[in-house]
């Protein structure tokens, strides 16, 4: 397993530090079904791994993490910044903390934010794979690597009105680098959607 | 208190079973940890490792001991079966949160103990030179550094597990006052006689200590009481009951008289006594350990319990307790493996497993669930020359008990991995 040091991805670090980012944990239930849950306490640790606070002892996430640790399975984490920049990470839980100084510090932090809340466990997750899944980037990646995977109407030189005579064309798409792609004009940092809509290109 | 337990158990407190030769042939006689990991891929490796460490014990390298920080780590404990105040860790925790109890002095069973080593950054459990898993030392709670208003170390009154407070108000057992009546796996008497401690703790100091312990946020999920049998009283066991009532009522004041997550393991009280516990205190769950699930073995291994209450009487009282405390709030513990003790125990693993699980299922049907802990053959017990069964035996027993618990729909909450942490079968309840 090759681990990824998340500290070397500044945009992702910024997204992890941003409270308005959305962070989703994916685990596998005992019956093989996937289970997703928003875990906005997912944070970057000094060692380059992720950690988060599991608030519910009996949650499917908690069981899924135990299962992953016991049987060497992966978990997935989706991070989406407020601007829509998104990443899909996968890794393995490497430690859970249920007592002691670290637990107490997080327990107090959780309780200070929610007087009705408690803390079941802190999970530490080592990330071994990462990809940016921002929609615009994924669109460009796909159009570059898979130029045939496009609807033809998007390749027309001129829009054809319904009922109008079609212009003569070979019908084959041009290489991606020769095409004008709407996405290539997306300015850096603008991705055309709000990350909260969940429209990242995973 | 008067001692009304007058029957004589006749048998002597002498060692049972021939000594082991001290050879390493046990490795040839059973499947190894790595064999079992491959054979049972659905059984969690950390739980398997925990079982084997408990069975075989641990020793520490000097580097591992040097890594103990007595300011942070728990190195002292006083209970009815173990006293320790040195600079070695009380117990260990694996990275997945599984606790491994290493308390007590294991007898020489011929097993090589696991080794805890330290590589400069982390401690590791090793079998010989092979590192198998990272471990951490239990951290101690704040109150461990404090003393009561009478000047006693609080850790001597209330010991800690990672998420539980443990109280042993009576640190001796009346069964050991009669020759041959103590449970044969038990070290309560030898521990008591070796130490210079009082049999009865002060209720006021216990309550004072718990009040101090509860100041620490997030440290405790449960309060646990147990101790040696006190036979005396107007009715047998009334004095034991009164002791627990006094402690629980004192603790109840801390919670405004409400029920609070708590467990009592006592001698099996009669229904009237159990009702008083339920009605007069904040206690939420009740346990009376049957120790071994076979009547004739119970009579042999637990002669005091057998003579005072009897096997069937014990089971009847557990069932009554479940009716009073509610389904799921009463369980019973077994010292898993003593059913194979020589010379009267089961001769084969198959026989022992099938008997134990069949008998356990009868209890589940009666509303009482069963938990097992690993039989750690201890110095000072009558059984100190015995050897626990194979690792595979424990694996299958844990699977069996977990399967019964799921089949009959009992939650493991009262005895789960973070409250007690001493039951491989309830470790399995995490998923």
Summarize it.
With 202 residues, chain A is of the alpha+beta class. Chain A is 21% helix and 24% strand. A 7-stranded antiparallel sheet of chain A has the order 2-1-5-6-7-4-3.
- Largest interface pair: A-B, 24 and 22 residues
Low-confidence stretches of chain A: 178-198
Number of folding domains of chain A? Answer: 2
Q: Low-confidence spans of chain B: pLDDT under 50, at least 5 residues?
A: 1-8, 10-15
Mean pLDDT of chain B equals 93
Description:
The complex is a heterodimer of chains A (202) and B (431). With 202 residues, chain A is α+β, with helices and mostly antiparallel strands. Chain A has two domains: 6-134, Pnp Oxidase, Chain A (Roll); 136-197, no CATH class. In chain A, 21% of the residues lie in helices and 24% in strands. A seven-stranded antiparallel β-sheet of chain A has the order 2-1-5-6-7-4-3. The radius of gyration of chain A is 22 Å and the shape is elongated. Mean pLDDT of chain A is 87; it is low at 178-198. Chain B contains 14 helices and 15 strands. By secondary structure, chain B is α/β, with parallel strands linked by helices. Chain B has two domains: 44-137, no CATH class; 143-430, Aldolase class I (TIM Barrel). A seven-stranded mixed β-sheet of chain B has the order 9-10-11-12-13-14-15. A six-stranded mixed β-sheet of chain B has the order 1-6-7-8-4-5. In chain B, strands 2-3 form a two-stranded antiparallel ribbon. Classes of the chains: A alpha+beta (202), B alpha/beta (431). Chains A and B meet through helix 2, strand 6 and helix 3 of A and loops of B.
């Amino acid at each position: 397993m090759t681990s990824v040091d998340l500290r070397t991805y500044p945009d992702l670090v910024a997204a992890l530090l941003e409270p308005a980012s959305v962070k989703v944990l994916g685990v596998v239930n005992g019956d093989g079904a996937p289970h997703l849950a928003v875990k906005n306490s997912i944070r970057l640790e000094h060692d380059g791994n992720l950690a988060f606070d599991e608030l519910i002892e009996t949650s499917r996430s908690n069981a899924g993490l135990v299962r992953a640790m016991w049987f060497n399975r992966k978990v997935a984490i989706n991070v989406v910044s407020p601007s829509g920049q998104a990443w899909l990470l996968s890794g393995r839980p490497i430690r859970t903390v249920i007592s002691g100084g670290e637990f107490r510090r997080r327990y107090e932090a959780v309780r200070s934010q929610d007087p009705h809340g408690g803390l079941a466990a802190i999970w530490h997750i080592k990330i071994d794979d990462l990809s940016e899944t921002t929609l615009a980037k994924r669109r460009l990646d796909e159009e570059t690597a898979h130029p045939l995977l496009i609807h033809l109407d998007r390749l027309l030189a001129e829009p054809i009105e319904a009922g109008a005579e079609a212009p003569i064309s070979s019908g084959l798409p041009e290489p991606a680098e020769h095409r004008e792609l709407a996405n290539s004009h997306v300015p850096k940092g603008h991705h055309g959607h709000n990350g909260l809509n969940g429209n990242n290109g995973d | 208190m008067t001692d009304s337990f007058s029957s004589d158990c006749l048998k002597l407190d002498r060692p049972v079973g021939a000594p082991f030769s001290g050879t390493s042939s046990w490795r040839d006689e059973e499947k190894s940890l790595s064999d079992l990991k491959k054979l049972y891929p659905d059984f969690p490796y950390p739980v398997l490792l925990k079982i084997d460490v408990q069975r075989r014990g641990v020793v520490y390298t000097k580097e591992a001991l040097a890594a103990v920080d007595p300011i942070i780590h728990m190195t002292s404990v006083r209970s009815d079966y173990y006293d320790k105040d040195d600079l070695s860790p009380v117990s260990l925790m694996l990275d997945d949160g599984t606790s491994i109890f290493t308390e007590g002095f294991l007898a020489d069973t011929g097993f090589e103990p696991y080794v805890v080593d330290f590589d400069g950054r982390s401690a590791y459990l090793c079998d010989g030179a092979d590192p198998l898993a990272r471990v951490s030392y239990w951290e101690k709670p704040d109150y461990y550094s404090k003393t009561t208003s009478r000047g006693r170390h609080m850790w001597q009154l209330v010991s800690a597990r990672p998420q539980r407070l443990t109280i042993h108000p009576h640190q001796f057992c009346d069964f050991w006052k009669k020759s041959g009546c103590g449970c044969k796996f038990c070290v309560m008497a030898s521990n008591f006689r070796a130490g210079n401690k009082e049999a009865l703790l002060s209720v006021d100091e216990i309550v004072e200590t718990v009040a101090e312990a509860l100041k620490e946020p997030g440290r405790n999920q449960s309060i646990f009481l147990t101790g040696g049998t006190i036979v005396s009283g107007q009715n047998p066991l009334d004095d034991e009951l009164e002791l627990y009532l006094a402690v629980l009522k004192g603790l109840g004041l801390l919670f405004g008289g409400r029920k609070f997550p708590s467990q009592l393991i006592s001698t099996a009280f009669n229904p009237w006594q159990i009702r008083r516990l339920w009605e007069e205190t904040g206690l939420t769950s009740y346990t009376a350990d049957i120790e071994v699930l076979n009547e004739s073995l119970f009579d042999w291994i637990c002669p005091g319990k057998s003579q005072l209450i009897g096997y069937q009487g014990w089971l009847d009282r557990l069932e009554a307790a479940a009716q009073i405390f509610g389904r799921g709030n009463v369980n019973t513990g077994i010292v898993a493996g003593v059913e194979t003790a020589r010379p009267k125990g089961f001769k084969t693993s198959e026989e022992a497993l099938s008997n134990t699980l069949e008998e356990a299922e009868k209890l589940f049907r009666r509303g009482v669930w069963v938990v097992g802990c690993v039989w750690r053959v201890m110095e000072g017990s009558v059984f100190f020359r015995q050897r626990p069964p194979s690792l595979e035996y424990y694996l299958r027993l844990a699977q069996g008990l977990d399967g019964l618990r799921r089949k009959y729909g009992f939650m493991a909450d009262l005895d789960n991995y973070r409250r007690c942490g001493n039951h491989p079968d309830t470790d399995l309840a995490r998923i």
